[in-house]
Amino acid sequence: MDKTWLLTVVGNDDPELLQQFTATIALCEGSLLDHQLVSMAGRLSGLYRIRLPQENVAWAWKRLEDFAAAGLYLVAREQLSSMPPRSPKLSVEISGPYRLGLDQDIRIILESHGADIEHYNQQAVAAATNDRVNFQANIQARLTRDLCGDRLQQTLLRLNQDLSIDLSGPV
User: Which InterPro entries does the entry mention (predicted)?
Assistant: First the structure.
């Protein structure tokens, strides 16, 4: 039986060390479900949500705690309930003219409106008749709070009035 855990880590901001940390989770037959890291002045703190087979948990903790010798400390671990509450889903389809950074701006807006993005599929295609590049994105998200669809749509349109936006779900 797999168990879901929330890990809190602090330590040196070392990309190779973080890669080794997540590779160790995989070595323990675990899955990285989500993570949030913040870096400042060469240090970082972060949260990892992982899933581990119950039979590998003790071995995984030993392997992950060994990273303290390299400067990455596992500060806390908490087992999460196996059945998280069901959250409403949101589906967003956006198309329009492309510009560099548009996808990141869309992600930030959705997250600020309570959408936890689970799937983000995008493509940018050059139009055959002109030099314009068109952008299309299909986004699936889980809502962490009530959503005002009109406000979300207005905010997305501030990125570019020529965007076509289709929201479906509990808006």
Answer: UPF0237/GcvR_regulator
